[in-house]
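At this stage, I put together a protein sequence along with its fold in token form, as given directly below:
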Amino acid sequence: MFRTILAVVTIAVACALGSAAADERPERDARIHIVASDFVLPSKLVRIAGWGKEADVTVTHNYLEQGGPGNWAEYDLVVIDAPLRGRAAQLIEDVMGQLNAAGVPWMSVGSGGRPARSGNLDPAAFETLSAYYEAGGERNFRNFLTYVAAWNSGRDTSHIPAPVPMPESAIYHPDAPDFFTDVSSYEAWGRDRWPADAPRLAVIISSTYISGVQTAVLDKIVHQAEWAGVMPILFWFDSMGETGIPEMLGPADVDLLASYTHMQNGEQRKAELAELDVPAILLLGNRSMTPAEWRKAAQGVEPAMTAVLMATPESWGMGDPIVVSGVENGEPVPIPEQIDLLIGKAKSIARLRHSDQVDRKLALFFWNTPQGERNMSASNLNVPASVEQIGAALREAGYDVPELTEDDILQAGQSMLGGYYHHDRLDDLLANGLAQAFPVSDYKDWLDTLPQEVTQPVFEKWGEPESHWAVRTVKGQKVFVIPSVRFGKLLFLPQPPRADKVGESYHDVKVPPGHLFLATYLMVQKAFDASAIIHLGTHGTQEWTPGKDRGLWAYDYPMLTLGNVPVVYPYIQDNVAEAIQAIRRGRAVTISHQTPPFAPSGFYDELRDIHALIHEREQLDEGAVRDETDARLADVVIEANLQKDLLWTEEDVRSDFATFLPILHDHLHELAQTATPLGLHTFGLAASPEHRLMTVMQQLGEPYYALLGIDQTEMFATEAENLPESEPYQFLERFLRGGEDVSGIADAAMREQIERARAYDQNLADPQELEALLHALDGGFTKSGPGGDPVRNPQASSGRNLFAFEPDKIPTPSAYKAGEEAFTGLIDAYKSDHDGQAPDKLAFSLFSSDAIRTLGITEAQIMHALGVRPVWGRGGRVTKLEIIPAAELGRPRVDVVIQATSVYRDQFDGLMRLYSEAIDELSKQDEPGNAVYAGTRRVRDALLSAGTDAGTADRLASIRIFSNAPGDYGSGVPDAALDSTNWEDDAIIAQTYLASQSFAYGTSDWGQSVASLGLFEKQLTGVDAAILARSSNVHGVLSTDHPFEYLGGLSAAVKSVNGESPALYISDLRRARPKMVQASKFLSDELRARYQNPQWISAMMDEGYAGTVEMLRVTNNLFGWQVADESMVRADQWQAMHDTYVMDARDLGLNEWFEEQNPTAQAQIIERMTEAIRKGYWDASEQTRRELTERWQELTEEAGADAGAQTTVEYIEDMAAGFGFGTGQGAPAADTSAAAAQTIQGQVMNEVLSPGDVRPDWLRLSSIAGLLLVMLAGALLQLRTSRQWTLNKGQY
């Protein structure tokens, strides 16, 4: 018993002694160490350390990536200030383990709410300390430090004020004594601060700005807004709540919503933005540069931030990203001119929202494409018809816009374009109300307000504005004469040429916009005082002018042109990639519009006859009759040159017809099933019910056909006019047009197909385009929607603000798997074409649009070539590319060169960096079958031989990615190719391409010019094949110039290096399974299925004038391919184009139609064909040359067509003289500017007038008399003069 008592007493004494020892605190200041993630800026930590000195607490810090401070035991408390997620999670776990082992008290914060964990820390102290730290703000941090000092020394802490929690939702104002929990109390407090009608700007912020005591940017926004007469509402809310934004803003009736924080719960945010129904924009902070550094940087937003802070909110409908802050001394600091952009946008949106439609002024820009004074178009959009529809909708909505017809629009548009091609016409345009006068002095005053680094390049390139060809003196004042016409309060005008002069060949595409370009947009902003701008159709040039790739500076040219005028941009739904540029660089809200409808290509003429003959042969037994039929078949196939499309020779066809025949039959079926666009889209109008039904049939596709149980190979093997008689069409028609009840379908799978068809049909029948346009012009919110090719993606929406798939999730796992099939197909195709030899090196041209549509199949194809695989992290984001070990790969690696378009560079730079890192690693792995290593060694040796130092050679030799310079767009190749009268050697294509694309993108050298080292050329050495993807049924390789620009340019560049062109392949991703096709065959098939097809031609003829421009575009693009890679276009294909579009071999009445709609377009087609002859690409027969010459003379002399480039005209004249047609050039078309003025009511501005000026009667009468004299003089002048145009199209 005694021993038990003694033991108890001993233990009690020991505990008392231990407790006394524990209560002894060192006679020194408390020491806190903060371990932070890079999300925490240094200024917060420095401030805490400063307040710590006042509280006798020593505060130190380091960042997770730097490791620990060395001896944890020196500290009384360690605070881990970092979110427990992402790459920081493991580092935090390591730190926690070290602290637990050392027995040092610690707590973790930064994950929102109460910290998840602590260690070696009394629970009560942990609860109080964490509450102080997480709530933040100066008051809480000071009390936190006071508490630590008392707690560490064992003093009483009860007198220290309790933590003041941060409200879950509140409104912040730097001059207010406290936060506001609702809008009403905030309005009551600030009633005297803001005008009663002040525009209301709501900015979503994170409470961490306040808790982290980093409010300089917020305070600047508030004070700058109030100085401008704007009411600021800066607030945060519970992001995980169900009604966060509308509930917080309540009755505030805000005009513009901006977000300056990363928001979560995306689907809820998307719904809230639609409910709030005000435009929503993005505010961003650059955390790696000072404002001065950021202003000079090529990139406005770090690549790592793009997906989370831009792409994700864009999917909710947000846009117009504005960088409002940089970092100095570890603290966010405002960029004042960027905040001006925000406030200016708020004021301009408020102006729309609080004005009557009749008082609003709108400026509608259209595009001059392809080159030629009669050409106005946009991608797959009937521009004149669309303007008519928009004008009617505006008028019906109450805008001051008169009734407009297509003829009014065409006459005005073409007359105004004439001023850019014939400068002497500007005076007439001004006199007839088809131009506006804008004082040069106003323009120069504006230039004087801009930074010198912005204006100096303009003056150096373009000289003084007074000497500009568009400047005239009116009443002693120098003015720009700007082609434009006022239809009421709608200003209708062509976008001026970016280089100031149509036809001026500029191959340095990184060139500042010219004086007239800038002056035109300034006139729209200031003199016309536009309430909003409409950029009509895909696409113009404003958003492609030089500047940052994203997150632009206020003084970048794209921002200067627009100022703060809201931009509404009707954009084709299939081109999401370039729509994103319009949103990010054009400050636009896009209104997606539908593509044309689609139909199977079907058969026509020779295809019909050959197919019928094949089926006739199938009924025959072996013998003389079948042999004779085979011979007839071979004859008609060879006459139609179909064997060339299939890459067979005439000899092989005749000698091995049995093998050829099934290949031919399958080819015909494939052509018949090809989805072919029908005509163009008119903005706001749905396609006809028949065309919609045909489109829906193809949207359903193979699963629907299979359920019908029909022979899918033959189902569309008929003439196009008979397609509505096909079983797939007839069955759909019963339920979608005939009113049959779906419930009567016994098969559940077929019932589901028809229900889906109904939804697809409704989507096509209700475009919602005009409604969305009008709503945007009212200052409302435009809902977001996915884009894409409607055949591949029937969910593609119209009337929506387009967005793209998040770039850091590409490729998806399914795309990576499909990429393997595409890579295997490519290797097999190459081997088949090259006697079993596999390629060692491949070049890829990457387009952003294809990456978005396919989610990265081509990107995955490159990865399989290299032998790497993606590592997908949180949320499906690709975090790295992992090298597949050689033993596991089991085959040689294939070296690659990647040419990224400028849009791709802007949107997928994160993936480009992952490629660069992986290629760097592969370049170091000396293993059998590693062509990347071998290629890098070869390039390194070549650089060393050329005198490059070893360090630079080592660094650059592994770079495989090339593109434009940062902030530079386009290649210049289309300009060069079509400017064929100004060069003799088509080597200019390779030179232009290489000059524009010789900027290297590697891990250490991002966007560095390497032209002087010839690095791009060195990497192209040995390229065996070049690949381009096509993933849209809208576009092939001839419908737009981008394929010949990039794949053709790449081919020309490889040829200039290796002496021969590479094999060219199209990765055909338009259907479910990837397919590799030789590029020349892809082009041939497109010609057969579309441009030789009466179905396509007739649908374009139904579009009137707009259809003529599309036919010209195809001809120009065929010529572009001819110049870029001569092997792509055959002489018989030129002959077929001549027979179809000049001789009307399909008997469609084309010549009469061209004469009625746009004779100049047919004359330009003939001139382009003549250039193919003149340049030696096409040795046309004498008969063909005679026909071209004779028709051109008819057009220019009798139909009023404009003549083209002088060199081409002289060549035609020489041919005419040889044929005895006479040597005089056909008379140019009469000047239409005066005639147009008789029917188009434009406001005459031969002097600078205010909008309300009224002319007296005597002045009107004298103007009419003067007009008649001008018309007479113009008619006389036409008898004596000739005109020329120069083909030179700016392409981006």
